[in-house]
Amino acid sequence: MNKMTGLSAAGSLETLTEPLDVLIVGAGISGIAAARYLRAERPGDSFAVLDDNESFGGTWLTHTYPGIRSDSDLHTFGYSFKPWIGPPIATAGEILAYMRETIEENDLAGTLHFGARISTAAWDSDRKLWTVTATDKATGREHEVSARFLWMCQGYYRHSKGYTPDWPGMADFAGEVIHPQNWPEDFDGAGKRMVVIGSGATAATLVPNVTDQVDHVTMLQRSPTYFRSEKNEIEIATKLRRLQVSEEWIHEIVRREIVLMGHDFTERCFSEPEQVKAELVSVARAYLGEAFDVDTHFTPDYLPWRQRIARIPDGDLYKALAGGKASIVTDEIERFEPDGIRLKSGDLLPADVVVTATGFDLCAFGDVAFSVDGQPVDFHDTVGYRSMMFTGVPNMVWVMGYFRSSWTLRAEIVAKFVIRLLDHMQETQKSRVEPQLRASQKDMPIHDWADEADFNPGYLLRGQHVLPRRGADPEWALNQDYWTEKDEFEAIDLSDEVFAYD
Prior knowledge:
Elements: E1 20-25, H1 29-41, E2 47-50, H2 59-62, H3 74-77, H4 92-105, E3 112-113, E4 116-124, E5 129-136, E6 142-152, E7 176-178, E8 193-197, H5 201-210, E9 216-221, E10 227-228, H6 235-242, H7 247-271, H8 273-288, H9 294-297, E11 310-311, H10 316-322, E12 326-330, E13 333-337, E14 340-343, E15 348-350, E16 353-356, E17 369-372, E18 375-376, E19 384-385, E20 389-390, E21 396-398, H11 407-427, E22 433-435, E23 446-448, H12 458-462, E24 469-471, H13 482-490, E25 499-501
């Protein structure tokens, strides 16, 4: 049994000697979805799931800091085919249990191969195969695994470490510096002063959940973030359960309502941004009181949804600040000193422990060295078709979820597309496919992947040079609107000239 999850032992790399129909990279929320769709829709296909970690779960396995929870509701972050029963914002443990049930209910355990670190992925046009080199971390032995189709579900950031800026004087700091992705199992904060650097979902989760472990915690942010504070309950789900409606129906109804409400909220962020801004800030003011400097600490200078809006269920961050167990400082770091952090204002922020909740270290394709017919692939030289397939790269799909909606919504859209694509290739007896610009698109303007004016978190802007590029036409752009994509993907004509087959 797997010590982390209670899952029966997964497969060995040594058993993967024959070319597979599909190789899935990553056993997080996207990879398990991919495996389930293959099992359900194409039961005759051979496939395997490889993951660098010791178990499934991705983010929910590797992140262990206090309070780790979802930042999206589980009715949409969960799968459409498996009802979520519980509060919408869930803990990592609850999400792992849900994923374990998905694996068991769909008989996926034997397809999972853990501790497999992939270093290379090479496409051979003569054989019409991808061959990946994977090292078994337990034995140190390298294995080659071949497949006709490669499904990259490993996410977009490096799980082994997070992003920490190199501030002046860090070596002089006498205390402990921790990134949330590498939270120590034996952490003891008793009597210590903690400073959490950051203002996103991680910082907002950590601060209220560490107050009982340290003497005091201060959230240090360079600039404010928008937060949505809502009751951790879906009222319509509670009412439907009282009416004894089946969980399958509740899941579908709640999912549709949340998707519609999310779409409407996003539309308002662009059609009436100042009003939405005022509403979000007013919630902070209601929790913290008129004496609190909400203008400085919770009023961003950008408009809503240009960066991710973090959720704080039941106002827990605001309550921690209002109760005095936590405080917030908005300033920039001048340097680290032995006793704390010197701010640009000149103030010294005392600290025994500093937590750098400063974002992800972007890793778009899992640090895998890709090649096609012996030539290295630089994904920044490719253009992304619907942010999932790339010019010059055959038989591969990459899952990039939504930032303004739940990641899983797009993971499932892509999964359904892949099933249709594999069916089409089987029916037409084609063994190779890659996207290509239409004849009418040869002069289409090409841009970096992230649009700074639309969505501009730091980790994406820092990693533009490793990301594919996007085109001006919608099918070559990064779309963040599930409401339109759910219909557009279903309407994709697989015989269209945008797909080159042989």
